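Review form for a predicted model. The reviewer records the input and the model, then writes brief findings.
Reviewer: anonymous (R2)
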Amino acid sequence: MLHISDIEKKWKNNPEPQFVKDVRENIKKSFSRLEFIEEGHKYFVHNDDGSTITLPSVSHICHQFEPHVDWDEIAERKANKMGIPTQDLKRQWRENNLRSTSNGTKTHLFGEAYMYFFQGRPDLMPQVIKDTQYEDGFLIPYGKKEEAIAQFYQDLYYIDNIYPVMAEAQIYTGIENGINFKQNYSGTFDMLFAFQIKGEWKLAIYDWKTNAALDNSYNRDKLNMLLYPFSHLVNESFSIYTIQLSCYQIGIQQLGYEIADRKIIWLKEDGTYEKFSVENVTNELKKVLS
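Model under review:
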């Protein structure tokens, strides 16, 4: 495991560039009007005149491109096949969803804490993680997916040309001098990094994913695709996340930065992770949202 002394040594030998500091502060300032309410997953923008605008989330935007599925019909058909009441099956689904959501939230919170730890700022970690998992300079993972997060940063530790900018970056469209769609939106992504290519600074958006699987073999076999303009993408989690990361990219691009990489970091049950670069679909999004 990394120790805070390892982190301090890394940044002493390879100090954070001013560009990284400036990007972090610019993003915080540019989206300072945004308020996120965890309960109900709601975003609000507060204007100077005292008015408040409610914005849909990135997830809401992404789900617009999914074909309608009659889950009631599917539940009834599957329950009959299993020989159980439909309501019992729906309850099982609900329980599994709550368990998955709760575990995913805890894992993401640990991921947020590790970004601050990796920046050498354990004081900024969420208090619940700091109180229970930060001990003697170590940030201790609980569970396999948290081990995968720790391994991700352990691997990143040995790369000198990439810098962590911020965790839990919040964006929205329609900021002053930014992109203004017919349907503006807001969202939060897990990690923003900065790196140099041939002397030019670029940004990278990374997002943790804790799904059991990213693909859908049934929809791939049946060629069940998303709706226009993403009818070239299979209806599966990987495709939705592809759209999701481009939504975030548009938010950051409003500030004049170039996003050169978008990655899903898939945290697996065995304590390992996989990185997947995803397609840039910002042009398609801009056309359909404008």
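Findings: The CA atoms of residues 36 and 42 lie 6 Å apart.
Further findings: Residues 86-118 form the longest helix (33 residues).
Recommendation: see findings above.
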